[in-house]
Amino acid sequence: MSSILTNNGAMVALQTLKSINSKLTDTQNAISTGKSVSTARDNAAVWAISKVMESDVKGFQGISDSLNLGESTVAVARNGAETVTDLLTDMKSKIVASQEQNVDREKFRQIS
User: Fold this and answer.
1) Residues 6+ apart with CB under 8 A from 35
2) N-to-C CA span, the chain
3) Which one of 3, 47, 83, 91 has the lowest number of neighbouring Cβ atoms within 10 Å?
4) What is the pLDDT of residue 108?
5) Dihedral (CA of 25, 26, 27, 29) sign
6) Sequence-ordered alpha helix ranges (H) in the chain
7) Residue 108 in contact with residue 98, Cβ under 8 Å?
8) Residue 105: CB partners within 8 Å, gap ≥ 6?
9) The pLDDT of residue 59 is above 90
10) Range scoring the smallest mean pLDDT among 1-5, 8-12, 17-21, 48-52
11) 20-29, 51-60, 89-98: which range is least confident on average?
């Protein structure tokens, strides 16, 4: 009976198995995090770049939210300005109409 320590084929198979297990662990980490580099230990440069990009994306999301809020505020202000313009136009037409000669001014006073 031969020992695993003296069997070259078994030693190569064991080394291959250890390598496969190591790569399997790396792949499982990448799948679970959704990133090819899950920690700084995997690849420090790529990990640092990914962290900067993550913070940039969150910053852009904040900017997008602020722009949406600003857009809504401007839309409300525009609608208010249009309403005021319509009211002023109505007031002007009533003033012009009340200055005509054959007008019952008493009716205009009651409307106001």
Assistant:
1) 50
2) 114
3) 3
4) 65
5) positive
6) 8-33, 44-98, 105-111
7) yes
8) 98
9) yes
10) 1-5
11) 20-29
Place of tokens 């109409």: 97
Structural tokens at position 52: 């900067």
Burial 93-111 (b: 16+ CB within 10 A, else e): eeeeeeeeeeeeeeeeeee
Single-letter residue type at 6: T
Which residue type sits at 66? S
40: three-class secondary structure by DSSP: coil
Q: For the chain, what is the largest distance between any 2 Cα atoms, rounded to a whole number of angstroms? A: 128
> Look-up: residue for tokens 């939210």?
65
Write out the two tokens for 46. 């790529």
Q: Is the pLDDT of residue 4 over 60?
A: no
CA distance 110 to 107: 5
Closest CA to 88 of 109, 80, 10, 11: 80
List Cβ neighbours of 38 (8 Å cut-off, separation of 6 or more). 29, 30, 32
